[in-house]
From TrEMBL:
Subcellular location: Cytoplasm
Gene: rsmG
Species the sequence originates in: Coprococcus aceti
One Gene Ontology molecular-function label: methyltransferase activity
Protein name: Ribosomal RNA small subunit methyltransferase G
Gene3D superfamilies the UniProt entry points to: Vaccinia Virus protein VP39
Residues engaged in binding S-adenosyl-L-methionine: G75, F80, A126, E127, R145
Matches recorded under PANTHER family: S-ADENOSYL-L-METHIONINE-DEPENDENT METHYLTRANSFERASES SUPERFAMILY PROTEIN
Pfam families listed in its UniProt record: GidB
Domain of life, per lineage: Bacteria
């Protein structure tokens, strides 16, 4: 895990011995559970450190996360980026949302074994969770590394964000066509693209784009649409 610290130092984040130990334990639990369920295709330690841990933390290069804010990780999967962000920035209040209950059991064990506080899991599809009063427009920040186009991700995530907050999408790249369609959806959903940051994980050729969307107005109650509909363009 020294490799992780050498990478994160290059974007201004130094991890403590305790945090390094937590990341090491997280890796061990991930690999063990991955033997019996499909959490990730990436299991080699070096690859997990770069493609999951460092990548998740790269957001801190562009946003100050030393804050006591409410964060939701939509479609968290094996806990990325939510758990790495919680380890590195323990002051964050984090909700991990996923539609697959068995993944949440894995995440609950990680949270328990690592002794993390103010982080919990929610079993829900984004389309359903975004309509629930306890989650709708309750978060300062929504993040997602889910694999979907920006328009779809925006419909899943922006309803969770309170006006004045942000949705940040982790994209492998920001394609012009996807950005054009995404900006239209974002505007309808009450958001505005504020910044797009294109970068690489230090010491690698791994590309990452962060699309920062600021919530400037309440989302119309008809969004998010029911499951599957978000893949169709917003009218």
């Amino acid at each position: 895990m020294d490799r992780l610290n050498s990478i994160t130092k290059q974007f201004g984040l130094e991890l403590s011995d305790k945090q390094i130990e937590q990341f090491s334990k997280y890796y061990d639990i991930l690999v063990e559970w991955n033997k019996v369920m499909n959490l990730t295709a990436i299991t080699e330690k070096e690859d997990v450190i770069i493609k999951h841990f460092a990548d998740s933390l790269l957001l801190s290069k562009y946003k100050d996360l030393h804050e006591n804010i409410d964060v939701i990780d939509v479609g968290t999967g094996a806990g990325f980026p939510g758990i790495p962000l919680k380890i590195a920035f323990p002051e964050l209040n984090i909700t991990l949302m996923d539609s697959l209950n068995k993944r949440l059991k894995f995440l609950d064990e990680v949270i328990d074994e690592l002794g993390l506080q103010d982080i919990h899991t929610v079993h829900s599809r984004a389309e359903d969770g975004g309509r629930e009063e306890m989650h709708r427009e309750k978060y300062d920040l929504a993040v997602s590394r889910a694999v979907a186009n920006l328009a779809t991700l925006s419909e899943w995530c922006i309803p969770f964000v309170k006006p004045g907050g942000y949705f940040v999408s982790y994209k492998s790249n920001a394609l012009p066509e996807e950005m054009r369609d995404g900006k239209k959806a974002i505007r309808i959903l009450g958001g505005q693209v504020e910044n797009i940051f294109n970068t690489n994980i230090p010491e690698t050729n791994n590309q990452r784009s962060f699309v920062f969307v600021k919530k400037i107005a309440n989302t119309n109650n008809k969004y998010p649409r029911k499951a599957g509909a978000a893949k169709k363009p917003i009218a």
